[in-house]
């Protein structure tokens, strides 16, 4: 009623409310009537009501105690969200139009459904999936279903009042979809929960193992397993654990130990876990190289090689290779082999263990050098009253010869690198046992060499006096110094040659010449390290000569009819005094000349070659007495290489020398005059192109034919 009166009511204790009545008033929309309210999702309730004419929207209200949740919707049905699961709510609806909002509808009770269980899934075995969840409020039971994620195959569904369930007889390595929900006492289902879970893979089958004995590694293969993302191969032994991982159906395990038994297993894995180990395959690797190798020469010509037993070794093969390239071997299940050997050789020995897996790795290579051979053809080329010159053929393995002449009490020695020796200062008319011992730096002297018995020439008689009788005959009287000797007196001069013989103590000659003359010149030259040659011109009236070489170490002399003489047992690097005496046929002596002489420097010992790199060689020796300068020569098929070290050094480096060749090496002292000695021993070395570029070069002993 427009323009109607306004009634004001005064209420004690309350505010004054004025109501203005308008004749043409706009009334609020009608109150809706709820047809039904229900819950399909645990956090919401859906409400249905009859449409109110003129209503433009509706206000849904859900009340739980003091909690009120409102939602504005456009029409029926409408849904109130943000609610608690399994909770009873009072639901009302208000209609809203341009004129205002209606009163709340009569309330309707509705209860939200149960919350979805929170699933925790796993695959304890390749054919099962375990589903677990926590208890759901107001739940009386649970429904759980499972099917392959690709939709193929059947659906398994199980109801339970427990909070866990196991699905078995599933396919290994397969992705499954699991769905679960709870229901209340009325059997009303709650929210469902969905997740995916893959079963763990089955253990790989048909495991094959291939062992590489040279590289100590094993290649393992197997049949692929359904649903496997990765594979892990395990090699277990008592002392080690090795593994390799791969996404394919093969894998290689390296760094295996020799002499070890491994259990090989293969595990398949995916995001669900790993398979259980199938039956392991046993792998026995090759045995380790035998250790504690000992080499003995029980008696000359017989080598005994022994070694320690090794794990997994079925039998052994010992290889013995001599430095001339000849190789023999011994196959045995024991730990010892015997070999025939020869003198003067270096043998390289290696021992391998074998089993079904193959040959053991190469262990240490040992070398054994037998004693040098003994000279067997000792021949005297000159036997005089005070010296013996002997020669023999060079023997294999000898670097030096030690010659000894023994007469029972006295010993005369001569050491030289040449296969010859002059034994000086011997006693005349004396028997000597002469032995030549061969010597090598590695093995020392071969003391099994046999001796030869040689008797020196008769002693020179001492002329007591020379007299002339009435018949112009010269009477020569001497003191006999030999047993059962015939003495011959010779007189030679410008008038001719005269002789007389006697087994007694005197003899008569006629027309003897005057006193002997000294030679005009005398020369001393070095023949070998222990022998010098003294030569002189012929002295008039001299029938014999005596050359004497003397130093602080001793005296060496020779008595000869010739105009030269070899003096032996010379010590290298020593200063000597050389004297010559001319002796006439009558026994008169002329002291002719004195001359100082320095013997040659000693030949160095211990010559060895070391590799400096692929094309470098270092020659090293032991410095000898009497020399500060050396010259080195290397003779090979690809050229001749020389080296001259600085004074005082005992090594020299040769660069850019071709490998793969055999070189004859000689280290010679150089005299102050610049003269290089040529009689020092030569050694043969083989310079290979394989193996380490650092270390010692293999020495090859010279054979008899060399």
Automatic annotation (TrEMBL):
Residues 1-24 form the signal peptide. Residues 28-112, 115-203, 204-288, 289-373, 374-459 form the Fibronectin type-III domain. The keyword Signal applies. Keywords: Signal. This is Fibronectin type III domain-containing protein 7. The keyword Signal applies. SMART domains: FN3. PROSITE patterns: FN3. It comes from the Eukaryota.
